[in-house]
Amino acid sequence: MSKEHPWEEGSEVLAIESGQIDYSKPLPGTYLTTGIRAQRGYRLGKFCMTLMAPANRDLFKADAEKYMGDFGLSDYEKELIRGKNWNRMLRYGVNTFMILKLSNAMGVSQNHTGAAMRNQSYEDFMATRNSKGAQ
Amino acid sequence: MVNLTHGRIIGGLGSPHAPSIGAAIDKGQDQSAEWKPLFDGYAPIVKWLDEKKPDLIIMIYNDHANTFFFDKYPTFAISVAAEHEIADEGWGKRPLEPIPGSPEVAWQIAHSLVDQEFDIAVCQEMPLDHGCLTPMSCFFPPGKRWNVPMIPVCVNVLQPPIPTAMRCFKLGQAIRKAVESYPKDLRVVIAGTGGLTHQLGGERYGHTNTDWDQKILDLMETDPAVLANMTHQELMERGGAEGVEIIMWLVMRGALSPKINRVHRNYYLPMVTGFGQVIYEEPNIDLLNSRSPQSRNAEPKVA
Predict the structure, then answer these.
(1) Both ends of chain B: CA-CA distance in Å?
(2) pLDDT tens across B38-71, in order?
(3) Measured between alpha carbons, how far is B222 from A50 in angstroms, rounded to an integer?
(4) Most exposed residue of B39, B56, B61, B115, measured as fewest CB within 10 angstroms of its CB?
């Protein structure tokens, strides 16, 4: 897409030595935001945080392209949002709880977001739950 | 004659803090078939708080990118504010009054913790999100808000490096000493919040583990050192990425005596999180319980 690409999608395995987490053996389907990943995801996370303010949510809903452009997101970051690609946002380095602010502003519930992260339909995901009414 | 008056921990509570629980309260769904098994588990906690009448709750919780953002992120933070605003997390504030804090005690605790080499960040403004509001609004239903002031203590469980399970357990021990360093009569309940097992991101979204949830509740009560010695990787493998939140329960457990009296335990797993609720009483709670002069006199005296 652009020369930023290696920085934007590389570094899946974090070269961090930690006694608590073995980053050379990441848990499947799990993306912890630390190190280089947290660094590159910072701007997009900060963008998500702006959507806590009702006035900003209104601006975003009215003209998402303008709102994203005014904030200064990269083309790659805009593409992640347009595609509602939550897992790629996590791999990029955006924390789950920030993604939930974005998905909420895009009218997608937490469990719809979760089903998409699992590559399942909402109905298939909900069929795996004990008590659908408690959400 | 030595004056023995000082702060004391009288017990600990464990509670989930999922935002869906707060929403169920606000929508009046707490007695629905889906929610009743959880709210029935709060009834004994509400009654216990009514009976024990603590002067203060110390709430061990985590913020979810509402009060703290990664521009500056504390590992541990304590509020010394007199009052705590309700945070707007991006979908409107919950209809709750601001929650009173306890500045005098909080400053004492902050000083004592740093003296004990726990270098906690001290906050004068700390709006609260569901991590704190969910348990508070369950412990204190409408009509009881806010009967007891609260000091929130925030733990980083969002962005590694997060504190080890053992560090959290030791923080609890230090909080106990800090409370006991307060030179006035003060009866304190400490609450650990979060989890149990859950994961909210990635293809593993929705991972839960009931066997591990039950084991956590067993170990938390009788042998918390086993949990405190586990790595984050071990906790996340079993309980999901956000299942690491049980380190906040370990702060609560560390503040209690090694042997406690468990008077309540409830478990419910409706959707994406294993919900655990407990009451742990200090073994000498009968002495700590009553405010009557008789019971005060029953306490050991130092010549």
Answers:
(1) 6
(2) 999 999 999 999 999 999 999 999 999 999 999 9
(3) 44
(4) B115
CB contact under 8 A, B205 and A118: yes
Facing B159 at nearest CB: one of A27, A34, A129: A34
Q: Which of B253-283 are b and which e, b meaning 16 or more Cβ less than 10 Å from the residue's Cβ?
A: bbbbeeebeeebbbbbbbbbbbbbbbbbbbe
Chain A residues with beta carbon closer than 8 angstroms to that of B41 = none
Helices A110-117 and A96-105 pack at an angle, to 10 degrees, of: 120
Predicted confidence at residue A48, as pLDDT, reads: 98
Query: Two tokens at A70?
Result: 């005014």
Q: How far is CA A29 from the centre of its chain?
A: 13
pLDDT tens-place string over residues A69-101: 999 999 999 999 999 999 999 999 999 999 999
Q: Do β-strands B83-84 and B99-100 pair in parallel, antiparallel, or remain unpaired?
A: antiparallel
Only one residue has tokens 């019971």, namely B295
A–B interface: beta-carbon pairs under 8 A: 136
Nearest-CA distance A50 → chain B (Å): 9
> What are the backbone angles phi and psi of residue B262, rounded to the nearest 5°?
-80, 115
Residue B198 appears among annotated catalytic residues: yes
Say if CB B34 and CB B270 are below 8 A apart: yes
Residue A82, number of CB atoms within 10 A of its CB: 11
Of B32, B89, B205, the CB nearest to A117: B205
The alpha carbon of residue B294 is apart from the nearest alpha carbon of chain A, in Å, by 47
Q: Indicate the residue of A29, A95, A110 with minimum beta-carbon distance to B158.
A: A95
Rounded to an integer, what distance in angstroms lies between the CA atom of residue A52 and that of residue A55?
9
- Report chain A's terminal Cα–Cα distance, integer Å: 39
Question: How many angstroms separate the CA atoms of B158 and B121, rounded?
Answer: 17
Residue of B70, B42, B59 whose CA lies nearest to B133:
B59
Q: Could you confirm whether B207 is annotated as catalytic?
A: no
SS (H, E, C) A72-129: CCCHHHHHHHHCCCHHHHHHHCCCHHHHHHHHHHCCCCHHHHHHHHCCCCHHHHHCCC
Query: 3-class DSSP state for residue B23?
Result: helix
H or E element that contains B262: strand B261-268
Is residue B13 within a helix (H) or strand (E), and if so which, with residue range? strand B7-15
pTM of the model: 0.93
**Contact between chains at A28 and B24 (C-beta distance less than 8 A):** no
